[in-house]
Amino acid sequence: MRLIEKTLLAFFSVLMFTSCSSTRVFVTNTKTINVLPPSCIERKTDKIYMLTATFGENNFSTPIYLTVNKKEISMLMVSDFGTTLAKLFYDGKKCTLESTVLPKKIAPQYLVADLEYTFGDIVEIEAELRKAGLTFSVISEFGSESSPGVPAPNHQFRFIFDGKKKIAQIDISEDGTIEIENYLRNYKYKLVEISDDLEVSE
């Protein structure tokens, strides 16, 4: 097994949770929420990113093609050589993760949940987390105007709290860079937009 495959396995082992069903995820060790349908998405993307992920002392970087909209959430992860490492797909009815290097025990809905926390409608995410006794808060720093008289947020911070304990934080920069950190599970990843074409070999 190549180094990147071993590192991927170590990183995604944190997502080998036992879930109540294919539509629920544990946000903490005891509190669960439903994975919302893609219709909850507020910020769309259909771009190539460089994914840099860290779990404990393990880290790796690999390009991904990420699509997030009101119909689907999907991600294609490839190696530096263009070989497909994993395919994630969720349309509100089915949630799948196909991979030749990752174990089948990995629950793909946890990846979907992280993307919904990032791209989802604040009100819908907050309402779902509140049902589980969790808090979702958002801080926006404003910059240039998006329309006359309306300032646009150039940096947004999203937080998940269990009482006073911070569970996760998402930073969204004006240039499209996204940083997601889960303090409870001890993992984080960074998504940076890149413009190079993504060449894939099966």
Oligomer: single chain
Q: Label the structural class.
A: alpha+beta
Helix content: 10-25%
The H/E string reads: HEEEEEEEHHEEEEE
How does the major sheet shape up? 10 strands, antiparallel
Overall radius of gyration: 17 Å
> Percent of residues in beta strands?
over 45%
What's the arrangement of strands in the largest beta sheet?
Answer: 7-6-5-4-3-12-11-10-9-8
Give unreliable regions as ranges: none
How far is the first residue's CA from the last residue's CA?
17 Å
Overall 3D shape: globular
Query: Roughly what is the average pLDDT, rounded to an integer?
Result: 83
- The counted number of beta strands is 12
Number of helices: 3
Q: What is the structure about, briefly put?
A:
With 202 residues, this protein is an alpha+beta fold. The protein has helices at residues 3-12, 109-119, 122-131; strands at 24-26, 32-34, 45-55, 58-68, 73-78, 84-90, 95-99, 135-147, 150-162, 165-173, 178-182, 187-194. It is built from three helices and twelve strands.
